[in-house]
Write a structure and sequence with these properties.
The chain is mainly alpha-helical. It is built from 10 helices and no strands. Helix 5 packs antiparallel against helix 6. The termini are far apart.
Length: 249
Amino acid sequence: MRRRKNRIKGATLKPKQPPARRWPARGWLLLAAVCAAAATVSFWAIASRRGDRSPEERPPPLARQTQGTPGPKPSFPTRIVETAEGAKPAAGPPPVSAATPASPQPDPVEAVRAEAEALKKESLEIGQRLIQEYPDSVDGVNLLAKVHYRCGEGAKAWQYWEQAWSRDPSRADACAGLASIAHDKGEHEKVVELCRKGLAQTPGSVYLLRQLAQALNWLGRPEEAEAAQAEAKKLFREYDSTGGISGTA
């Protein structure tokens, strides 16, 4: 007996664990009551806030789409804005307005013609100024003749070139201008006559020699044309070797 007690005394006894606590039923009932009270208070606050608004402040009901196929469902932010500001009509194509006539486009030919007229006017003004400031010089008259000739006004150009050549017979450019007008008219005999008169005053005019050779070719006189062309080439080489102006009239 004593030996059994000693064995029991020396054995290691395990501590007893307390039983697990259980949530009482009344705790669950208390939590459900608190949640219901919070839901009731929130619902009452929202209802009172809506009831305090005036009819003008209350948002109008969303318009229902009864005809046609339903449109795309708006996104969450769009629904909030539409609810706050009222239903907005769906964006559709802009109304068809009466076709307005297109503005007329500027004509490029007319623009070039207007620019040419402006340049012609400016050049004529410069020529008249030269005549007034330098009455003893024929440069202004010669300039007016060139402007009229390039604008297709051969009659006026003939008058100014004839005036310049009569005032200064050494002006081979005035004689060459008269020969150019005669060539445009097909008067090749007149060209030969003018060139020979001009070469009598200025024998070193390369331009008059070339005009003479061209007119002689038109008249079927190739030997005389070749002689005039050879003389023009010879003078051209001399001008070029001495540093003169190539193609001097």
